[in-house]
Amino acid sequence: MHGLGNDFVVVDGRAEPFRPTHEQIRWICDRHIGVGGDQLLVIEPPSAAGADARMRIYNVDGAEAETCLNATRCVAWLLLQESGAGRLRLETLGGLIDAARFGERDIALGLPAPRWDWQSIPLASEADTLALDMASGPLVQPTAVNVGNPHVVCFVGNRDEVDVPRWAPAIQNHPMLWEGANVGVAAMAAPDLIRLVVWERPGILTRACGSGACAAVLAARRRGLTQESLVKVDMPGGCLRVEVHGDESVTLIGPTAVAFSGRLPADVKAA
Ligand SMILES: N[C@H](CCC[C@H](N)C(=O)O)C(=O)O
C-alpha cells in the first residue's frame, strides 16, 4: 500500500504470527531483490485495552520504529474495509492512534499532543528543542519534536534548492540525537502551506511522511511562522492536511492506496 507514494509492505500477522528477522525485513523492503517499500508493517492482535489491532513498523534496516502515520492511515483503511466500521483504534509503539474514514480513500487520524521536552525527543543532554545547536550546510538550528517518533525540522527558504541527501545525514546522525531522528526540510510557502521533504531514519528520502508533516506544522507554529489551525503540507508525493487543535492534539488527513496483494515466498516466511 502507499500513502502519497510513501510505500509499505503490509503483512497480516493476526492469525499466524510473523516476527521477521532483520535480514528478512531488509530483503522484503529491498526494491531490487525483494518486494520493495519504505517500511514493513505487521498487523497483530491488540495487546492494549481498547485497541482494535496492533501494528508493528519496521524500517528498511530492520529496526523497529515507534510510529509511521502514513502506514497507520493505510492499515486503518484496510481494517475498516474488512470490518465495515467507520472508526478504529490502532496500537503502535508510539501510542494509541484513533483513525476514521474520511470519504472513499482518505483516513483521518487523531493524534495526542506532541512532546517537546528534550528527554522525550530524545536528546542526549538538555537543550532548547525550539532551536537545536546543529548545522549542516543550509540546515541550521532545527526544531525537535516527538509526535510518537522523533523528528527535527529545518526551515529553509526554498525546499527544492537543498541537496537533502548531502546535508541531512549529519543532522540525523548528530550525537545529540542518540536514537537518530527523521529530518524534515521545510519551507513556508504561505501561512497555510508548507513545502516539505523528509529524510527518514535510517537514511531514506521518502515521497511523503505523515509524522513529518505533523512535525513540520507543529514546529512552524511553535516558531511563530504560522498561526493557522489547518495547514496543507505539500511533499513530493502530494499533499496532507494537518489540523492542530487548542491542546496541540492533531488531526492528519490524507489518501491511501493499495498497489497489489500477494503472498511472500515460503522461505521468507519460514526463515
Ligand atoms: N513515513 C512515516 C514515518 C516513518 C518514520 C520512521 N522512518 C522512523 O524511523 O521514525 C510517516 O508517514 O509518518
UniProtKB/TrEMBL annotation:
GO cellular component: cytosol
Residues making up the signal peptide according to the UniProt record: none
Matching Pfam families: DAP_epimerase
Keywords assigned by UniProt, alphabetized: Amino-acid biosynthesis, Cytoplasm, Isomerase, Lysine biosynthesis
Principal subcellular localization: cytoplasm
Site feature (Could be important to modulate the pK values of the two catalytic cysteine residues) residues: 151, 200
Pathway: Amino-acid biosynthesis; L-lysine biosynthesis via DAP pathway; DL-2,6-diaminopimelate from LL-2,6-diaminopimelate: step 1/1
Keyword Cytoplasm (UniProt): yes
Residues at which substrate binds: 6, 39, 59, 149, 182, 200-201, 210-211
GO biological process, one term: lysine biosynthetic process via diaminopimelate
Subunit details: Homodimer.
GO MF, one example: diaminopimelate epimerase activity
Name of the featured protein: Diaminopimelate epimerase
